[in-house]
Amino acid sequence: MNYIFHIIIIINIYIILTVSTNLLVGMANLISLAQAAFYGFGAYLGVLALMILKLPMIPTIFFVMFFTALLSLIIAFPSLRLKGDYFILATLGFQLIVFTILYNWVSVTRGPYGIPGIPAPKLIGIIPISGIIPFLILSSILAGFVIFIFYKLVHSPFGRVLKGLRDDEIAVKSLGRNVTKYKILTFAISSAFIGIAGFIYASYVTYIDPTSFNLDEAIFILAAVLIGGTGNIKGPVVGAVFVVILPELLRFVGFPDSIAANLRQIVYGLALIILMRYRPQGIAGEYKLQ
Amino acid sequence: MNEDILQINSIKKSFVRNIVNIIGKEENERFFIIDDLDLQIPRGKITALIGGNGAGKTTLFNIISGFLSPDSGDIMYQAENKQMSVIGLLPYKITRLGIGRMFQDDHIFHDMSVLDNMLLADADDFGEFPFISIIYNKKNKIIERERIEKANSIFKELFGEDNPFWKKRDDPAKSLSYGQQRLLGLARLFMGNYDLVLLDEPTAGVNPQIINQILIIIRSMVEEKGVAVFLIEHNMKVVLDLADFCSFMSHGKITAFGTPDDVIGDDEVRRIYLGV
Fold first, then answer.
1. Taking CA atoms, which of A281, B42, B88, B261 is between 20 and 30 Å from B232?
2. Optimal mutation site among B92, B119, B193, interface A, most CBs of chain A within 10 A
């Protein structure tokens, strides 16, 4: 049973990642390869809040969200002037810079040695959230909260502006909307919630190192969003379930771990190719990425 | 208040183009698409801008609406209680001042519903800030309802009680015919608070029935709302029927200005533009 609970916790973490990424990719048409950088930043900030600042859980979440959003502004201001492929390259550059810093700034992050023994977050400063059941509840509540918030955003006048941006940026400008402001807000909101996923991951596995937040992870998050589908909430949720469940299913087929890992990459690649050809809006999405 | 809503003074705009010179060598040449152009757009009137392809008409519109910066010159906008230069302002700020625009290529939101196309064009952007759109649920709902009622009344006013736009309000705008998309683009301008609208070839590529509808809508914009219209148009019948004034643009300058009859009857305009 613990195995199933573990899978659900991982699915919840990926739901937060994909639903947050969808705001950027599926709503504002800003394809970012820097999502793993914010994921990692959220994880390391969570560790800082829990281990050094000794903050309780709720303040830790706000601390992580605030500073991850702040970091996103560093990339948002210069890169949002870029369009299309140039924007993707700028986010790729940022992802590589963050990874390099996490990997090489050994005195702060312990670099490749990672940070072990991350303590359990404490509810109201006293009740520790540790063990699989409390994390199942916590991750489910947070994933549900993120789905609720993003559902409201997507179906609000703010979401309408983002859909407009996705469709025709010039038209949005000509209707009196400050396009740069909306892009920056979208970037900050998406990053802040991705930071939460980093925090839950760090406190759940109790150990982090930079390899969990590298370019492979960034591509994996983007692939999950594209496979599930963009433009609504259902798509990214389906994408998160798909990418987490698939390797587990392959495990049951009886392939050795070394083959299953490679096969997983092949299946993800095939899924992306087939979907882009026959269903560009993904399994359950509503927007055909352009 | 000045009788002109827009004063365009000595605007110059150049581009660099690549040419092959007489000895077959490629070189860059600075080319003035707009060259020291002066023009006044009267308040509450329809002013047509005619000229050959590549004369710089759309470039002039892009400068007025902030999508391009001129090399030099100034454009003064004079609405009620405000007089200011629009040069250096971002496009969204120019729109907020009261200058609306309809593009040559329709620029409607094809994947969004017909109704959402209208709602996004509303002058009031309350609820579009993310936290407000989540927190102020009740006020958002009230304002959203008002926006929908406004869109409905605009459709009724422009296209009658039994109009296809309200019936198809939840369908994506791309499901409308091209002519209907042009009409939607015009209807969207009624959602904003504009004193001046720039219309870039509103009748291009549409059938005579839709052209008639477009003419009626533009007239109602001017007569009922008091909006000044500055339009680029190649259909001389439309110019003669609709415009109060006409300006002819050639070689980056306004070379003729007056009533449509005078300008279209001008020998130079007939020779250069109409080929008569």
1. B88
2. B92
Specify the pairing of strand B46-51 against strand B245-250: parallel
How far apart CA B253 and CA A254 sit, in angstroms, is 77
pTM: 0.89
Which residue type sits at A131?
A: G
DSSP assignment of A134-187, as one string? HHHHHHHHHHHHHHHHHHHHHTSHHHHHHHHHHH-HHHHHHTT--HHHHHHHHH
For the cut 80, the answer to whether the pLDDT of residue A25 exceeds it is yes
Confidence of residue B1 (pLDDT cuts 50, 70, 90): low
Residues B218 and B238 in one domain: yes
Is there a contact between B111 and A172 if contact means CB atoms under 8 Å apart?
no
Q: What is the pLDDT of residues A61-76, one digit of tens each?
A: 999 999 999 999 988 8
The span from the CA of A35 to the CA of A45, in Å, is: 15
- Torsion sign, CA atoms B168, B173, B175, B181: positive
B114 shares a domain with B136: yes
Reported as a single tens digit per residue, the pLDDT across B58-77 is 999 999 999 999 999 999 99
Query: Comparing B77-91, B189-203, B247-261, which segment has the lowest mean pLDDT?
Result: B77-91
ipTM metric: 0.90
In what helix (H) or strand (E) does residue B197 lie, and over which residues does it extend?
A: strand B196-200
Distance of CA B247 to the CA centre of its chain: 16
What is chain B's percent helix, strand, coil content, to nearest 5?
40, 30, 30
Domain limit, last residue, from B129, B159, B192: B192
Residues B79 and B8 in one domain: yes
Which residue's structure tokens are 């904003």? B192
> What pLDDT does A80 receive?
77
Amino acid, res. A84: G
**Could you tell me if A218 and A35 are in contact, meaning their C-beta atoms sit under 8 angstroms apart?**
yes
* CATH of residue B255: 3.40.50.300
Asked whether the beta carbons of B225 and B154 are under 8 A apart, the reply is: no
Helix axes A35-47, A84-104, angle to 10 degrees: 30
- The three-class DSSP label of residue B203 is coil
pLDDT averaged over every residue in chain A = 91
Domain residues for the domain of B152 are 109-192
Same domain, yes or no: B138 and B263? no
Lowest pLDDT segment from A167-171, A175-179, A245-249, B35-39: A245-249
With a CB-CB cutoff of 8 Å, which residues 33-92 of chain B face chain A?
Answer: 65, 67, 90-92
pLDDT > 70 fraction of chain A, expressed in percent and rounded: 99
The backbone torsions φ and ψ at residue B158, rounded to the nearest 5 degrees and listed phi first, read -85, -35
Chain B nearest C-alpha distance from A151 (Å): 10
A176·B92 Cβ contact <8 A: yes
Which of B177, B192, B207 represents a domain boundary (last residue)?
Answer: B192
CB pairs under 8 A between A and B: 91
Task: Count Cβ atoms within 10 A of the Cβ of residue B14 and give its class: 0-12 exposed, 13-18 middle, 19 or more buried.
Answer: middle
Instruction: Say how many residues make up chain B.
Output: 276
Q: Determine phi and psi for A73, rounding to 5 degrees.
A: -65, -30
For chain A, the domains span 2-210
